[in-house]
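hey so u asked for the seq, here:
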Amino acid sequence: MLFSDPETSPVETLVAELRDYPEWHRGRKRYGVWVLPVVQPALLDYVARMRHALADLLHPSPRRQPHVTVFVCGFHRARRRAGDDFSSGLLRRQWALLRREAPRRVTLPLAKPDSFASAAFIPVGDGEGQIARWREWLGSISDEVRQASYVPHITLGLYRRSVDALTIRQRLAALEAPPVALCATELHYVTYAARDPLGPLRMQRRWRLHGDAAPPT
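ran it, C-alpha cells below
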C-alpha cells in the first residue's frame, strides 16, 4: 500500500524499531541481496536533499548506501540449513547464470518520492521489464525471501515517528522530482550485518553491465 493511492493508503506511518532482532536472525551474521548501486553524483545529491527535507520523520541512515534492491537472497551462509538461508553454492549458480545471460546496462526512469507505511522512497520505473527479467533469472536458482509484492525503489529512510496519511501526502507533494534517470551500470551481490538494520552494505560480487545505456551523470 502506498500513500500516493488514497483508496488503499495506510492510515499512518509505521515506526521502525532499530534494534537487534534475535528472533529473526537466530545468531546468523550476514544477510544477502542483489542490488543496483546508485553512483551518479547528481542522483546521490538528490537523495541527500530528500533525506534532509524529511529528516524530522526518518531515522538517519548515513552508512547505508543508496541502491535499488533487485532480489532478496537471505542469510549468507556456507551451507543452507534453514529455509531463509542462502548458501555459497546458490550464489555460485546465480553467478554462473549471469555469466551465461550477460545482463546489459539500462536507464531506468524515476518519479517523485512516494511512501510505503514503513519507508519513504523514490519510485523506479521498469517499463521494459529489465529488472523483472533479472529477478526471474535469479529466482530460477533460489526462492526469494519476500513478505510483500516487489516494487523497485530507492529507499530514503524508515519512519521514526507516527504521522497521519494527509500530512505524509502533503510533505511528499512539496518535494521536487529527480533531476536524472537511474543509469544502472553494475549489479552487486551485497551483504549487511543482520544485527544492524541500517548498517553499510559489503560488496561480495560485482557484475559490470554492458551495452549502450547513457553513462552516469
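Residues 88-101 form the longest helix (14 residues). The CA atoms of residues 17 and 117 lie 14 Å apart.
lmk if thats what u needed
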